[in-house]
Amino acid sequence: KLHTPTNLLLLSLAVSDFCVGLLMSFQIILTDGCWFLGDVLCTLYCALDYITTSASVGTMVLISVDRYVAICDPLHYHTKVTMRRANVCTCLCWACSILYNGVLLKDNLKQPGRYNSCSGECVVVLSYMMGVVDLIFTFIGPVSVIIVLYGRVFVVALSQARAIHSHTAAITLQGSETAHTKRSELKAARTLGIVIIAFLTCLCPFYCSSLVDQNSLFVVTSVPLELWLFYCNSCLNPVIYAFCYPWFMKSVKLILTLKIFDSD
Question: Which ranges does the record mark as transmembrane (predicted)?
């Protein structure tokens, strides 16, 4: 029952965010501010970091598209969103992330360590133009898509809830019905608000600070607070996109308690 297009996208998000956490273990080790693994591994580390974070954001956009189709066009959802299409979109998301960040970091990849000012430093530099491009494709574009689609989902979900409540109003007390409608509206607003606010809160400081500087520096040996906040987005995604679903939590419980092996 877990083999659905939605869960495939959640799997992609889980993989990307897990990779971000795995890469951050190297960052935590470097508390003394020195990189001892060489310039090639420094560039590779930074490239993988860019790729996984971009794939995470791209997958979030795909999830918003999936939810949009499921809510706004439910009758055609199973014909429009299939496992095959979900597989293709997921693979394209990762492939585009690799290609995009390869172009973004081409100067750093050609000559690893070219921007290091001293031994033991790990620095990747993007030009101001590349920083603007990254701002558009990794922040402004995804934020716009997510806000528009989730806004549409919110409106349609409210209209559907009100339509259902109007049909059941004849056998339900008006007071309790109104209260139930309000609870549904508040729950929908809260969920969508968490998605958008978390995304903006985590990514806004990083891109605002990168626009202030003429060059966008990714300094592994001295990571600023806004970059740590950027990484926190990958920490929050599992909570927002997975653990808010009761059916997902039930499935996880069945797996962890080994009840999945029961005959029934």
Answer: 7-30, 36-65, 86-105, 125-150, 188-208, 228-248
Strand blocks (E) in 34-145:
123-126
Residue 23 tokens, joined: 């890469």
Residue pair 3/217 in contact (Cβ under 8 Å)? The answer is: no
Quickly count: other Cβ atoms within 10 Å of residue 168's Cβ: 10
- In whole angstroms, what is the distance from residue 258 CA to residue 264 CA? 12
Using H for helix, E for strand and C for coil, what is the string for 246-260? HHHHHHHHHHHCCHH
Q: Which residue has the higher pLDDT, 33 or 205?
A: 205
Provide the whole-model pTM. 0.80
Cα–Cα dist 103/94, whole Å: 14
For residue 112, which amino acid is it? P
Query: What single string gives the DSSP state of each residue in 105-122?
Result: THHHHHSTTTT--STT--
> Which has the higher per-residue pLDDT, 247 or 31?
247
* Orientation angle between helical segments 225-241 and 5-29, nearest 10 degrees: 150
Question: What would the pLDDT profile of 216-252 be if each residue is shown by its tens digit?
Answer: 556 655 556 777 888 888 888 888 877 777 777 888 8
Can you read off the two tokens belonging to residue 59? 């997958």
Q: Average of pLDDT values for 102-109?
A: 84
Lowest mean pLDDT: which of 101-105, 109-113, 188-192, 236-240?
A: 188-192
Task: Kindly compute the dihedral angle of the four CA atoms of residues 226, 230, 236, 241, in this order, to the nearest 10 degrees.
Answer: 150
Q: Which of 211, 18, 94, 35 is nearest to 102 (CA)?
A: 94
Residue 34 has φ and ψ, to the nearest 5°, of -125, 140
Select from 208, 200, 199 the least CA-distant residue to 236. 199
Cβ proximity of 61 and 145 under 8 Å: yes
